[in-house]
Amino acid sequence: MSQPAVMLTEVSMVFEAAGGFVHALDDISLEVHDGEFLSLIGPSGCGKSTMLRLIGDLLEPTAGTVTVKGKPARQARLDRDYGMVFQTSTLLEWRRVAANVELPLEIMGVDAAARAARAAEMLRLVQLDGFGNHYPWQLSGGMQQRVSIARALAFQPSILLMDEPFGALDEMTRERMQMELLRIQRQTGTTIVFVTHSIPEAAFLSDRVAVMSPRPGRITEVIDIELPKPRIFETREDPRFFAAVTEVRESLRAIEGAP
Amino acid sequence: MEATAEGTGQPSRSSRRFRAIVSFTVILLVLAALWEGYKWMGQTTGGVWPGTDIGLPVRTNNRAMPHLWDIVAALFRPARRGGDEILLVTLTKAALFTFRSAFTGFVVGSAFGFGLAVWFIRSPLAERGLMPYVVASQTIPLIAIAPMVVIWGGQVGLPTWMAVAVISSYLSFFPVAINSLRGLRSPPATAAELMRSYAATPRDVLTKLQIPAALPFLFPALKIAATASVIGAIIGELPAGLSVGLGRSLLSFASSFSSAPEKLFGAVVLSAGLGVAFVGLVAVAESRLIPATRRIAEAEAAAA
Lengths: 259, 304
Prior knowledge:
The complex is a heterodimer of chains A (259) and B (304).
Chain A: E1 6-17, E2 20-32, E3 37-41, H1 48-55, E4 63-68, E5 71-72, H2 73-78, E6 82-85, H3 97-107, H4 112-125, H5 141-153, E7 159-163, H6 171-188, E8 191-196, H7 199-205, E9 208-213, E10 218-224, H8 239-256
Parallel strand pairs in A: 3-8, 3-9, 6-7, 7-8
Antiparallel strand pairs in A: 1-2, 1-4, 4-5, 9-10
Chain B: H1 2-7, H2 13-45, H3 68-75, H4 87-122, H5 124-139, H6 142-155, H7 160-184, H8 189-197, H9 202-237, H10 246-255, H11 261-289, H12 292-303
Helix pairs in contact in B: 3-11, 4-5, 4-7, 4-9, 4-10, 4-11, 6-7, 6-9, 7-9, 9-11, 10-11
């Protein structure tokens, strides 16, 4: 058994807010396997985005430890182990598409020729070859998000952290992007931690789904998604897919205690 | 229907420039007509609003309101009785002298303002501690500070035009500091998180994210700073005891206003022209430094 990609041990996170403290996360322990696709799902305020930021060392936990490939999260960040994708593509509007993809490489000191080659390769990977000279605002929302995925993968991070990356896209674009993401993961072998509030999205993409409850944020259940891989268009019509969706939904309902 | 179909789309660059020139000329003519119309009305009614006995706020005789053609004519007559040099040349020389101080003040002030903004985004403590003083600096009347700067400048051997530049920079740094601060802070939190995930140095964050993001905020401030630096230079010249400069011209023509009002108006026109030209210079720099595509994208984002 190889080393886990991410290991959270008894992690708690408390924010100081106006009028007191907010327990964003309480005693979280979780392992993400190497090459795995793991989704975090839960109602808003359950701390799933906070958890993603703890893994990526954008926040430091109040208690507990986050280990990435056997290293502290901070060291992993300094080693450039993380690629990040947010709900908004966060492209720099004064840079052309290729220059946006090159940004992390530029910061890491890669020379210009290697950067250009890598950006072209990444744009091919996300099926945007020929768009390198466009400005971000000339692209649709789905295309912008592809660029942001290309940028995140440009420096070959071992872990991709995605915070509701398809949340702002229309349903059809969203389903196409989900297929794309799985194809990219097959090609690159990247471990993915994926925050979503869409039940079918979590079920379709994931190897495992961690279901979270709010106030304080806890993982109530980790569900194995027993769907054959690769997942294809027809997977969405497979009875096992519906079973997985139902299982996640029931788990979410249980934490709300709703009728 | 055909006309509307043809009317859609972006107007070409040259046609936009042509339209700008036309609208500028039309407005100039309207203003001139208002001036002369008001003057004519006052002269006709004997200084009251037509049909009333309410007096007009400004007298309309040739001493208070010279004819526009008299002002233009005065520009081409000798500046001093018996002199060779016409007023326009004297005033242009004065404007160029003032521009040297204003431009130096603009450059120094803008650089200082921008540097202050960079310091403030790096150090919240510096911002909280110094911001009240930055704001207070602008509420102190310039005419109170100008003589001190001139005297202190003289004591340390600064040429007078440079002391005037310092006074000018005192006005121009403020809009640049405030807008730069806002621009440097304009990238969304996720952009900062992205840079952090790349383990970027503060220098990378500044040069690759914050400064490019600040440019569209910086240029409007530079335009304000350009006009402010001209005002600052003119006011700075007043107590400096200079024999040249627009400030000197304004001062001496104001004292002879009752005998030759056209000269003061001529100086006013040149002062205004200097400010307009300076702002135009900044606009040219802006169009070179920020590609049109970006300005369009930002206009669209602002409209959305």
